[in-house]
Amino acid sequence: MARSAAEADRGRSVAAPAPAGAGFAAVIALPFGPFGIRTADAGLSGLVFLPPGTPLRAPADALARSAAEALLAWIDDPHHRFALPLAECGSPFQRRVWAAISAIPPGRTETYGSLARTLGSAARAVGQACGANPFPLVVPCHRVTAATGIGGFANARDGWLLEAKRWLLAHEARR
Q1: Which InterPro entries does this chain map to (predicted)?
Q2: Which of 47, 133, 45, 49 is nearest to 86 (CA)?
Q3: Who has greater pLDDT, 43 or 15?
Q4: Is 140 within a domain?
């Protein structure tokens, strides 16, 4: 007799990974792929690029609905200013990097090195802060590039995340 999935999993010491859309108040379709929205009492707690094929999820609360509307408005106009409550997170250094990134206008880029010089830091530290950014698009880390090319994105060096970065930069350059 065939065992159920729950029976088959019993006794394993490693839990199965959660589905890609799990834990999100919404998963919306954006031109570069699915995008997850996490909310908390203090505001948005995370925005996440999700793998292609992740199922969409209608907004579960008013904040997720507002965030989805704001993200779609940004897709229509990259000069759209976000006015979303963000849960406070990150180290003081990360928050300084994220503030500096937020000052880069749409259609422009800055290198990790030049941002590091402005902040009196190292390019690698700026890159790590970019990779830890919990609010991509709102804090537009895609506007930070390597001196020799596009650089990484969301802790990825290739694949669909880098394709999303290319799309975002091209989208802003067209406007």
Answers
A1: MethylDNA_cys_MeTrfase_DNA-bd, MethylDNA_cys_MeTrfase_DNAb, MGMT_N_sf, WH-like_DNA-bd_sf
A2: 45
A3: 43
A4: yes
Q: Let me know if 89 is a catalytic residue.
A: no
Which pLDDT value is given to residue 2? 44
Indicate the pLDDT class of residue 7, thresholds 50, 70 and 90: very low
Here the tokens at position 173 are 């350059």
Residue 154 lies in a domain: yes
Please, what sign has the CA dihedral across residues 9, 24, 91, 155? positive
pLDDT band at 122 (very low <50, low <70, confident <90, very high): very high
What is the distance between the alpha carbons of residues 25 and 38, in angstroms, rounded to a whole number?
Answer: 5
Active-site choice (68, 141, 144, 161): 141
Question: Domain residues for 130?
Answer: 92-174
Dihedral over alpha carbons 74, 164, 41, 130 (to 10 degrees): -110
Measured CA to CA, the distance from residue 76 to residue 173 in angstroms comes to 13
148: helix, strand or coil: coil
The model carries a pTM of: 0.84
Q: How many domains is the chain partitioned into structurally?
A: 1
Q: What angle do CA 77, 78, 79 make, to 5 degrees?
A: 90
Distance CA 48, CA 98 (A): 16
Contact between 155 and 59 (Cβ < 8 Å): no
